């Protein structure tokens, strides 16, 4: 059964920060959870990890996004099967559809004419017209849970073993050279950790493909659809009011957002089911050939790394003495993965210890990239 609460930061990932917590409202009640921090809050508020960092139906592909079907065949088949059920198996009166001279009764014909579904006319088998509006409402209400189920099958089920395997391999491997901090680990472990990082990056509702998609919306789609909606205002109006213009602009943005949501679904689909194309498959070879992993581990009894509602991100600032430009991914309160430019083998991981100053430095960066919420395993966090 698909879940309505779809976590964009997996619960299995947040488990590492789970501890005995209390809420600000009832500090005498202790329970297992994580501490959450909103803007400018000094003390963390205890919360069950099931209750945070989710959105309703985030990975549910609604039928209004059926334009993604050509690039997402499993979603296509899901919708085809559901439409076939509505037409042929629900109720006592099977129906079929026609468009032009084409008759639509089979899954093959549904698949062929799916992109024209708004123009279908529905009939009962005796040739009488069926209830068009009711059938169309049922079809428009369809949802596909292909993406949600796929995430559950991969990241949620594999994260524990990938995280533990990666940390153990780095810890237990011998130095590549005498007095070297670099550890050569099995290539597959390094690749699996990179894959998890990119999945966490791409599955976020705030994902912008390194700000590219936001630029597309701001510079192309928003202006284009705003102009189209303004031009659609009835010509008989002698003057376009400010209210008409604002409404048209808002409608244009909604059209653009619908398209970009579909693009995001297609990106997630290619990431999970594809072998080529899209941001995920394009950036992997670039990272493998031009970057190196650094695993930071805190000293015993030192401060801990935090995480956020944006746990995997790219940090780019002008180069300073403490150059931390690259990809950042806290993988536990005591471990943080940093991926930066490098010429060594990708599975040659630099293993470093992090003192309190280093932990606070990275925690400041994590806070600067959060959207709304910080997650920690302590009631107070220090960044200076």
Total domains: 3
Q: Report strand %.
A: 15-25%
Please tally the helical runs, counting DSSP H or I stretches of 4 or more residues. 11
Query: What radius of gyration results from the CA coordinates?
Result: 25 Å
Strand order of the largest sheet: 11-17-12-16-15-14
What helical percentage do the residues reach? 40-55%
Class by alpha and beta content:
alpha+beta
Taken from the alpha-carbon principal axes, the silhouette is elongated
**Oligomeric form of this entry?**
single chain
Order of helices and strands: EHEEEEEHEEHEHEHHEHHHHEEEEEEHE
Largest sheet: 6 strands, mixed
Task: Describe the SSE topology.
Elements lengths: L4 E3 L3 H4 L4 E3 L9 E7 L7 E3 L6 E3 L4 E2 L10 H17 L5 E5 L2 E3 L2 H7 L7 E4 L7 H9 L2 E2 L1 H8 L1 H18 L9 E3 L2 H17 L8 H20 L10 H32 L4 H13 E8 L8 E2 L4 E3 L10 E7 L2 E7 L6 E7 L1 H14 L4 E3 L8
Polypeptide structure, described:
- The chain contains eleven helices and 18 strands.
- With 384 residues, it is α+β, with helices and mostly antiparallel strands.
- The protein has three domains: 70-144, no CATH class; 158-202 and 281-376, no CATH class; 212-274.
- A six-stranded mixed sheet has the order 11-17-12-16-15-14.
- The longest helix has 32 residues, at 242-273.
- The radius of gyration is 25 Å and the shape is elongated.
- 31% of the residues are buried.
- The mean pLDDT is 88.
Spell out the key features of this protein:
384 residues, six-stranded mixed sheet, five-stranded antiparallel sheet, 3 domains, alpha+beta
């Amino acid at each position: 059964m698909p879940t309505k609460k779809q976590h964009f930061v997996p619960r299995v990932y947040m488990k590492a920060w789970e501890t005995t917590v209390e809420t600000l409202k009832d500090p005498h009640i202790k329970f297992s959870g994580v501490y959450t921090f909103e803007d400018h809050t000094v003390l963390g508020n205890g919360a069950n990890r099931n209750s945070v960092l989710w959105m309703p139906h985030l990975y549910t592909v609604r039928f209004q996004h059926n334009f993604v079907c050509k690039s997402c065949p499993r979603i296509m088949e899901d919708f085809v099967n559901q439409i076939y059920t509505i037409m042929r198996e629900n109720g006592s009166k099977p129906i079929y559809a026609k468009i032009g001279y084409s008759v639509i009764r089979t899954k093959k014909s549904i698949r062929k004419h799916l992109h024209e579904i708004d123009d279908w006319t529905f009939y009962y088998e005796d040739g009488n017209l069926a209830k068009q509006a009711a059938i169309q409402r049922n079809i428009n209400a369809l949802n596909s849970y292909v993406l949600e189920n796929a995430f559950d099958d991969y990241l949620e089920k594999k994260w524990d073993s990938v995280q533990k395997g990666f940390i153990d391999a780095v810890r237990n491997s011998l130095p590549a050279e005498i007095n070297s901090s670099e550890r050569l680990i099995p290539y597959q472990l390094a690749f699996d950790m990179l894959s998890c990082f990119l999945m966490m990056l791409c599955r976020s509702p705030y994902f912008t493909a390194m700000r590219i998609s936001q630029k597309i919306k701001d510079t192309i789609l928003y202006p284009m659809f705003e102009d189209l909606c303004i031009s659609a205002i009835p010509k008989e109006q002698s003057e376009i009011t400010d209210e008409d213009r604002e409404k048209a602009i808002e409608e244009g943005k909604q059209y653009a957002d619908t398209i970009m949501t579909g693009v995001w679904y297609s990106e997630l689909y290619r990431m999970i089911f594809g072998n080529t194309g899209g941001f995920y498959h394009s950036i992997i070879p670039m990272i493998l050939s031009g970057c190196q992993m650094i695993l930071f581990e805190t000293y015993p009894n030192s401060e801990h790394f935090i995480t956020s509602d944006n746990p995997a991100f790219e940090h780019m600032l002008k180069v300073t003495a403490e150059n931390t430009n690259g990809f950042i991914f806290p993988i536990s309160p005591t471990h943080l993965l940093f991926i930066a430019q490098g010429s060594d083998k990708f599975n040659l991981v630099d293993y470093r210890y992090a003192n309190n100053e280093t932990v606070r430095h990275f925690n400041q960066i994590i806070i600067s990239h959060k959207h709304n919420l910080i997650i920690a395993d302590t009631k107070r966090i220090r960044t200076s």
